[in-house]
Amino acid sequence: MPKANPTGALAWHAEETCGNAWPALREIVLEGWLVRFAEGVSRRLNSANPLSARAAASDAVIAETEAFYRRHEQPAIFRVPTLCPPAVERALDKRGYTAEGETCVLHGSLDAMDSEIDPEIVLRPRADRIWFAAMAGLQGYGAEAAHTYRRIVGAISLPASFASLANKEGRIVSMAYGAIHNGMLCYDMVVTDARERRRGHSHKIVTALAGWAKARGATGACLQVVADNMPAKALYDAIGLKTELYRYQYWRAPSA
After folding, report:
1. pTM for the full model?
2. What would the DSSP string read from start to end of 139-183?
3. pLDDT grade, residue 256 (50/70/90)?
4. Are 104 and 233 in contact (CB under 8 A)?
5. CA 227 to centroid of chain Cα atoms
6. What does the alpha-carbon distance between residue 92 and residue 245 come to, in Å, rounded to a whole number?
7. Tell me: the pLDDT tens digits for 91-146?
């Protein structure tokens, strides 16, 4: 998979887009870091994220971040993209932080992607009760996590579309949503029922959202995928998300 210039504007555009497409419930800006909190739902929303390659993991930043998460009864986590200088990871490693959850950020031109909207796909401008219930079921959310998830999605301020595909019995078996920021589509929460996989459902969902975004002037698309999820990476490569812009890992504080 080809890699783009990791310090380029495109990579930071994708970073900004992915962040805006998955908003936290609370956050503070701390010396070049966006420290996010969302009641423990997803590491992306409960970690400190750099706002530029100039963000440094000074002793003061680490201490203030740890204090923030301590107040919220969460472990301190830094999400560190390869866009940052190696000194950031060295500083966290020195304090006993450990790395986990390596993730790839993929990108593709919408002009090169399949963007057919299959008539079986339902696209909603807002997530309704049916969409939320199906997503909670497919993700295995309990009542508390499902409630938090609704609040997170409700905080999305970008133009968005919520896609779903039902089987012949009318049960939703594949879902995702997409949001557009500054001409770039971000895919999020792409999920298919385990009993319905390998039937092309995710392909239909992703291409339908590409068509929706192209109709609204978007020119590129990005997506975050766990680095060792080879089936998902193969799907996205086949669809046209062929360029790996950068990767990131989560650095978790040592237990008290």
Report:
1. 0.93
2. HT--HHHHHHHHHHHHT--S-EEEEEEE-TTS-EEEEEEEEEETT
3. low
4. yes
5. 13
6. 23
7. 999 999 999 999 999 999 999 998 889 999 999 999 999 999 999 999 999 999 99
- In this structure, the number of other CB atoms found within 10 A of the CB of residue 183 comes to 14
The 3-state DSSP class for residue 124 equals: strand
Strand 220-226 vs strand 243-252: parallel, antiparallel, or unpaired? unpaired
Q: Specify the pairing of strand 33-37 against strand 243-252.
A: unpaired
CB count in 10 Å sphere of residue 194: 8
Using the structure block, give the residue that is written with the tokens 């950020």: 105
Residue 181 backbone class (left: φ over 0; alpha: ψ -120 to 50; beta: rest):
beta
Residues contacting 84, CB < 8 A, separation 6+: 50, 53, 55
Between the alpha carbon of residue 112 and those of residues 62, 232, 236, 237, the distances in Å are 42, 19, 12, 11
Q: Yes or no: say if 41 and 153 are a contact pair by the CB < 8 Å rule.
A: no
Residue 92: CB partners within 8 Å, gap ≥ 6?
57, 62, 78, 80, 251
Nearest to 244 by CA among 105, 119, 112, 85: 105
Q: Do 199 and 30 meet the contact criterion of CB atoms below 8 Å apart?
A: no
Bridging pattern class, strands 220-226 and 184-192: parallel
Cross-strand partners of 109: 220
CB 244 within 8 A of CB 1: yes
Q: For residue 81, which amino acid is it?
A: P
Cα Dmax for the chain: 57
